[in-house]
Amino acid sequence: MKMKKVMALVATLTMAFSITACGSSGSKAEEQTPSTTTTETAATDGQSDNTAASGDSLQPEEGASLVVWESKEERSFTDEIAKQFTEKYNVPVKIEEVAATDQVTKLSQDGPSGLAADIVMFPHDNLGRAAAAGLLLANDAFKDETVKNNTEASIQGVTYDGVLYGYPRAAETYALYYNKSLVKEAPKTFDDVIAFGKTFTDKAKKKYGIMWETGNMYFNYPFIATTGGYIFGKDGTDKDDIGLNSEGAVEGLKTYVQLKEILPVKSGDISPDIKRSLFNAGDVAMDINGPWELAGYKQALGDNLGVAPIPTIGGKAAISFSGIKAWYVNSFTQYPNAAQLFANFASSKDAQLLLNTKVGSIPTNKEALESDQIKNDPYISAFAEQTKNSQPMPSIPEMGNVWSPVNAALPEIWDNNADPKAAMDKAAQQIKDLNNGATK
Questions:
Q1: Which of 37, 195, 226, 422 is deepest in the core (most CB within 10 A)?
Q2: Nearest partner of 74 among 101, 103, 99, judged by Cα
């Protein structure tokens, strides 16, 4: 254990020199002074240290107390779940507000010195750099039940280099919003979308059957992945196996090209603000977007708002990108048993349903997804259904080399009628060069 922590410290110090290159949130984390709230508890008659590998026999250490980092937006959930945890395990919990996207940066700075939280929470695309720096304990004690209880996509998202680290608690993806006053029922296929668009789209009047960010790879991943394309091989872990220009990817992009007929707009002229305005006004009938637009769209359209899974592509359920939020245990914690118990407790079926009640999140727990609470919500259930056919974004550091080349290739195809195979061949080569250390 001591050797692991020495190695983790070395990796962390190395990471600190390059952390600003890993994301734009670093400066915020350095400047942030977390606000704190302590759950009112008394830690009496603590249990002795037990390092058993099985979650069934794991007990909190004697005198254990925990610090948890949580985002401001989801603090209401963690306040409540912390109280429940303390009631069950008699372990005090203090909650500090730290933005989810800042937590890995802050953990790298404060973990080795013992100033970081025992349990942290961040999106899975930050996992690679945290795990590679030795900042996290593997999810060993609760591995079997975590894998059994959660969706395959969420498990993939919180696994790095073959090791399960996370305790999934929520998923995020995009789906199809539609205006029920214009579209009687959600289209099942993109052929249906095109058929409707031919009757509705009128460029002169700026009315379009469907709109989405056609130059953004995030929203266009279904046209790459559904028919067999991918970014990196081996579930997003093999940087040398690039599948963006594979036969499957090119096949799916045929549907992407066909949609230009009903959305004759340059990719650069489609922004979130423009699209939102047109959809709210009834000038766009359908929009591919995420749950972050739900509140505004409900306010604008009321009962006329519908949400459905993304239409099928090539006869197959559309595969979207997903992001997985999860708990992780700090490798430098003084109380690893108590920390693992909290991470597992706060990611259970009941905890995920509480999180949904508090902030409208989409569960990853399979039983929670099948619950009446989720199935009876017409909006959340649609996003939940789409998550079942989603793939988590690769979490390896090389993912940062993908966005610019693909976001340049898509407008070439959309705006300039470039051959999809040639455009994606170029993007794949650029990514390969970047992965191998080329500066341009």
A1: 226
A2: 99
Q: What is the pTM of this model?
A: 0.75
Task: Give the number of other Cβ atoms within 10 Å of residue 147's Cβ.
Answer: 14
Among 349, 319, 334, residue whose Cα is nearest residue 255:
319
Chain segment 313-352, per-residue pLDDT in tens: 999 999 999 999 999 999 999 999 999 999 999 999 999 9
Domain contains 164: yes
Domain count, the chain: 2
pLDDT tens string 103-124: 999 999 999 999 999 999 999 9
Query: With 0-12 CB in 10 A as exposed, 13-18 as middle and 19+ as buried, what is 37?
Result: middle
Whether residues 344 and 420 fall in one domain: no
Q: In whole angstroms, how large is the CA radius of gyration of the chain?
A: 23
Give me the amino acid identity at 123.
P
Residue 159 to residue 380: CA distance in whole angstroms? 25
* Rounded CA separation 413/256 (Å): 9
Q: Are strands 208-211 and 284-289 parallel, antiparallel or unpaired?
A: parallel
User: Both 158 and 186 in a single domain?
Assistant: no
Residue whose structure tokens are 């009128």: 202
Query: What is the C-alpha to C-alpha distance for residues 130 and 200, in angstroms, rounded to an integer?
Result: 48
CA distance 103 to 331: 14
Query: Contact, 147 vs 153, CB < 8 A?
Result: no
In this structure, are strands 284-289 and 175-179 parallel, antiparallel, or unpaired?
antiparallel
Q: Is the pLDDT of residue 437 over 90?
A: no
Is residue 38 located within the same domain as residue 168? yes
Residues 367, 384: one domain? yes
Same domain, 210 and 94: no
| Phi and psi at residue 213, to the nearest 5° | -80, 95
- Distance from C-alpha of 157 to C-alpha of 322, rounded to nearest angstrom: 9
CA distance 135 to 17: 15
| Longest alpha-carbon distance in the chain | 75
Confidence of residue 49 (pLDDT cuts 50, 70, 90): very low
Specify whether 399 is located in the same domain as 384.
Answer: no
- Distance between CA atoms of residues 51 and 18, nearest Å: 34
User: Of 93, 79, 166, nearest to 130 (Cα)?
Assistant: 166
Coil vs helix vs strand at 113:
coil
H-helix or E-strand spanning residue 7: helix 2-18
181 and 299 share one domain: yes
